[in-house]
Protein backbone atom coordinates (compact mmCIF):
# COMPACT_ATOMS: atom_id res chain seq x y z
CA UNK A 1 0.00 0.00 0.00
CA UNK A 2 1.23 3.48 -0.86
CA UNK A 3 0.41 5.51 2.24
CA UNK A 4 0.39 9.30 2.46
CA UNK A 5 -0.10 11.05 5.81
CA UNK A 6 -0.43 14.68 6.86
CA UNK A 7 1.55 16.34 9.65
CA UNK A 8 -0.34 19.60 10.26
CA UNK A 9 0.68 22.57 12.38
CA UNK A 10 1.39 26.26 12.70
CA UNK A 11 5.19 25.78 12.60
CA UNK A 12 5.79 29.32 13.88
CA UNK A 13 8.69 28.50 13.58
CA UNK A 14 9.70 24.86 12.99
CA UNK A 15 11.48 23.30 16.00
CA UNK A 16 13.63 20.20 16.48
CA UNK A 17 10.53 18.62 18.04
CA UNK A 18 8.60 19.08 14.78
CA UNK A 19 11.54 17.79 12.77
CA UNK A 20 11.77 14.68 14.96
CA UNK A 21 8.08 13.82 14.36
CA UNK A 22 8.32 14.54 10.60
CA UNK A 23 11.49 12.43 10.28
CA UNK A 24 9.96 9.49 12.13
CA UNK A 25 6.72 9.74 10.10
CA UNK A 26 8.80 9.74 6.90
CA UNK A 27 10.28 6.38 7.94
CA UNK A 28 6.89 4.87 8.75
CA UNK A 29 4.95 6.07 5.68
CA UNK A 30 5.58 6.39 1.95
CA UNK A 31 4.84 10.10 1.72
CA UNK A 32 4.45 12.84 4.32
CA UNK A 33 2.68 16.14 3.62
CA UNK A 34 3.67 18.74 6.19
CA UNK A 35 0.68 21.08 6.14
CA UNK A 36 1.19 24.65 7.34
CA UNK A 37 -1.93 26.40 8.62
CA UNK A 38 -2.28 29.73 6.81
CA UNK A 39 -5.10 31.42 8.69
CA UNK A 40 -5.52 31.04 12.41
CA UNK A 41 -6.98 33.18 15.16
CA UNK A 42 -3.42 33.95 16.26
CA UNK A 43 -1.28 36.21 14.11
CA UNK A 44 1.91 34.26 13.43
CA UNK A 45 5.33 35.83 14.00
CA UNK A 46 6.67 34.22 10.81
CA UNK A 47 4.69 34.77 7.59
CA UNK A 48 3.30 31.77 5.75
CA UNK A 49 6.07 32.09 3.15
CA UNK A 50 8.74 32.21 5.87
CA UNK A 51 7.31 29.22 7.75
CA UNK A 52 7.19 27.22 4.52
CA UNK A 53 10.73 28.17 3.52
CA UNK A 54 12.16 27.29 6.95
CA UNK A 55 10.37 23.93 6.85
CA UNK A 56 11.55 23.21 3.29
CA UNK A 57 15.15 23.74 4.35
CA UNK A 58 14.72 21.76 7.57
CA UNK A 59 13.37 18.68 5.70
CA UNK A 60 15.62 18.98 2.64
CA UNK A 61 17.26 15.61 3.43
CA UNK A 62 13.94 13.75 3.50
CA UNK A 63 12.96 12.70 -0.01
CA UNK A 64 9.39 11.66 0.74
CA UNK A 65 8.39 14.84 2.60
CA UNK A 66 6.59 17.78 0.95
CA UNK A 67 5.59 21.10 2.45
CA UNK A 68 2.09 22.32 1.65
CA UNK A 69 -0.19 24.96 3.16
CA UNK A 70 -3.89 24.96 3.89
CA UNK A 71 -6.64 27.35 4.91
CA UNK A 72 -9.84 26.44 6.71
CA UNK A 73 -10.67 23.05 8.11
CA UNK A 74 -7.99 20.37 8.23
CA UNK A 75 -10.64 17.65 7.83
CA UNK A 76 -11.77 19.25 4.55
CA UNK A 77 -8.21 19.67 3.33
CA UNK A 78 -7.48 15.98 4.01
CA UNK A 79 -10.62 14.96 2.13
CA UNK A 80 -9.67 17.15 -0.85
CA UNK A 81 -6.15 15.65 -0.92
CA UNK A 82 -7.43 12.08 -0.55
CA UNK A 83 -5.45 11.64 2.67
CA UNK A 84 -7.06 9.67 5.52
CA UNK A 85 -4.40 9.86 8.25
CA UNK A 86 -3.12 12.74 10.37
CA UNK A 87 0.13 12.24 12.30
CA UNK A 88 0.86 14.46 15.27
CA UNK A 89 3.35 14.54 18.10
CA UNK A 90 2.28 14.27 21.74
CA UNK A 91 4.70 15.92 24.11
CA UNK A 92 3.12 15.57 27.50
CA UNK A 93 -0.14 14.86 29.28
CA UNK A 94 -0.92 18.58 28.90
CA UNK A 95 -1.15 18.12 25.11
CA UNK A 96 -3.52 15.22 25.41
CA UNK A 97 -6.86 16.90 26.08
CA UNK A 98 -6.52 19.42 23.25
CA UNK A 99 -5.23 16.83 20.79
CA UNK A 100 -7.93 14.34 21.80
CA UNK A 101 -10.61 17.02 21.21
CA UNK A 102 -9.18 17.87 17.80
CA UNK A 103 -8.91 14.23 16.78
CA UNK A 104 -12.56 13.60 17.74
CA UNK A 105 -13.77 16.79 16.03
CA UNK A 106 -11.86 15.91 12.87
CA UNK A 107 -13.37 12.43 12.89
CA UNK A 108 -16.89 13.86 13.21
CA UNK A 109 -16.20 16.20 10.30
CA UNK A 110 -14.63 13.48 8.19
CA UNK A 111 -15.40 9.96 9.49
CA UNK A 112 -12.76 8.41 7.22
CA UNK A 113 -10.01 10.40 8.93
CA UNK A 114 -7.76 8.79 11.55
CA UNK A 115 -5.36 10.65 13.84
CA UNK A 116 -2.19 8.88 14.95
CA UNK A 117 0.12 10.17 17.66
CA UNK A 118 3.85 9.69 17.96
CA UNK A 119 5.32 10.27 21.40
CA UNK A 120 7.72 13.18 21.38
CA UNK A 121 11.39 12.48 21.77
CA UNK A 122 12.44 12.85 25.43
CA UNK A 123 14.58 15.88 24.54
CA UNK A 124 11.61 17.64 22.94
CA UNK A 125 8.89 17.17 25.55
CA UNK A 126 9.29 20.72 26.88
CA UNK A 127 9.85 22.33 23.48
CA UNK A 128 7.36 24.57 21.67
CA UNK A 129 7.45 27.26 18.98
CA UNK A 130 6.24 29.84 21.51
CA UNK A 131 9.16 29.00 23.80
CA UNK A 132 11.58 29.37 20.89
CA UNK A 133 10.06 32.77 20.03
CA UNK A 134 10.29 33.99 23.61
CA UNK A 135 13.83 32.78 24.31
CA UNK A 136 15.12 33.87 20.89
CA UNK A 137 13.58 37.35 21.06
CA UNK A 138 15.09 37.90 24.52
CA UNK A 139 18.60 37.09 23.37
CA UNK A 140 18.70 33.49 24.63
CA UNK A 141 20.41 30.56 22.94
CA UNK A 142 17.97 28.53 20.82
CA UNK A 143 20.59 26.41 19.07
CA UNK A 144 19.40 23.26 20.87
CA UNK A 145 15.80 23.94 19.93
CA UNK A 146 15.71 24.58 16.17
CA UNK A 147 17.32 22.88 13.13
CA UNK A 148 20.87 24.22 12.65
CA UNK A 149 20.30 25.10 8.97
CA UNK A 150 17.54 27.59 9.84
CA UNK A 151 18.86 28.84 13.20
CA UNK A 152 20.36 32.11 11.94
CA UNK A 153 17.26 33.09 9.95
CA UNK A 154 15.01 32.44 12.94
CA UNK A 155 17.27 34.50 15.20
CA UNK A 156 17.45 37.34 12.67
CA UNK A 157 13.67 37.55 12.52
CA UNK A 158 13.14 37.28 16.29
CA UNK A 159 15.70 39.95 17.15
CA UNK A 160 14.47 42.48 14.57
O1 LIG B 1 0.91 23.61 15.64
P1 LIG B 1 -0.49 23.77 16.16
O2 LIG B 1 -0.84 25.24 16.31
O3 LIG B 1 -0.75 22.98 17.41
O4 LIG B 1 -1.43 23.16 15.01
C1 LIG B 1 -2.82 23.17 15.17
C2 LIG B 1 -3.51 22.80 13.85
C3 LIG B 1 -3.02 23.66 12.70
C4 LIG B 1 -3.27 21.35 13.54
C5 LIG B 1 -5.03 23.02 14.09
O5 LIG B 1 -5.23 24.29 14.64
C6 LIG B 1 -5.87 22.88 12.84
O6 LIG B 1 -6.02 21.82 12.30
N1 LIG B 1 -6.43 24.01 12.39
C7 LIG B 1 -7.23 24.07 11.18
C8 LIG B 1 -8.67 24.44 11.50
C9 LIG B 1 -9.45 23.22 11.92
O7 LIG B 1 -9.53 22.24 11.20
N2 LIG B 1 -10.04 23.30 13.12
C10 LIG B 1 -10.81 22.22 13.66
C11 LIG B 1 -9.94 21.19 14.34
S1 LIG B 1 -10.66 20.90 15.85
Instruction: Say what oligomer this is.
Output: single chain
Portion in beta strands: 15-25%
Strand order of the largest sheet: 1-2-3
Helix and strand content put the structural class at: alpha/beta
Mean pLDDT: 96
Number of helices in the DSSP assignment: 6
Cofactors, ions, other ligands: 4'-phosphopantetheine
General form: globular
Q: What is this structure, in a nutshell?
A:
This protein has 160 residues and is α/β, with parallel strands linked by helices. Helices cover 43% and strands 19% of the residues. Helix 4 links the parallel strand 4 (85-90) and strand 5.
Sum up the structure in keywords:
160 residues; alpha/beta; 3-stranded parallel β-sheet; two-stranded parallel sheet; 6 helices; 43% helix; binds 4'-phosphopantetheine
Question: Your description of this structure?
Answer:
By secondary structure, the protein is an alpha/beta fold. 43% of the residues lie in helices and 19% in strands. It is built from six helices and five strands, in the order βαβαβαβαβαα. A three-stranded parallel β-sheet has the order 1-2-3. It has a two-stranded parallel ribbon with strand order 4-5. Strand 4, helix 4 and strand 5 form a beta-alpha-beta unit. It starts with a strand and ends with a helix. The structure holds 4'-phosphopantetheine (PNS). The site of 4'-phosphopantetheine has 10 residues, from strand 1, helix 3 and helix 4.
Amino acid sequence: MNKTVICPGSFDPVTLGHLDIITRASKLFDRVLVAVLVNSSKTPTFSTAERIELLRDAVSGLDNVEIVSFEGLLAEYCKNCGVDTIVKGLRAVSDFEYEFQMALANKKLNPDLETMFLTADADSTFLSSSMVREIGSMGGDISNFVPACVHDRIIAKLRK
